[in-house]
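Batch job 17 of 40 flagged for manual review because the log was empty.
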Amino acid sequence: MEDLLKVGVITTTHGVRGEVKVFPTTDDAERFLDIEYVLLDTGRELRRLNIQHVKFFKNLAILKFEGIDNINDIEMYKGRDLWIPREEAQELGEDEYYVADLIGMDVLLENGEKFGVIRDVMETGANDVYVVERVNGEEILLPAIHDCILDVNVEENIMTVHLMKGLV
């Protein structure tokens, strides 16, 4: 399991007082209201930035960090990722998982046969879709629904699935 979870990407600056627009990589942008700080990937290190203020515009969060009061102090970090330690993340509900925990997970069929590995998670309106690279190298899309996903064991890094007719 990853120690850090990606919560957003700085897309651009907002105004001249050091605010930035952030594209959230979390399923609920309002979680930024509960986050005290983020870790900015500067390319060389992770820099702790305490969040001073949060507001929202369309699908973006606009963040103001303590000690960054000028556009020149933050502009160089456009396109950089924002992370939080796992222990600072919100607790998940039943059948909720962090994408970081699913990527690279082994996918087994009901009979225990290895089917493939999760390579990506696509968020759609109705449900997530898991992009699985099969053992033979082909890619298949599995809907994240109870009829298809039978069990997810994050500790053992294994997902057990039922292949519904029409998927393969």
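Reviewer: the log was empty due to a logging misconfiguration, but the result itself is present. The first helix runs from residue 71 to 74. Unflagging and moving on to job 18.
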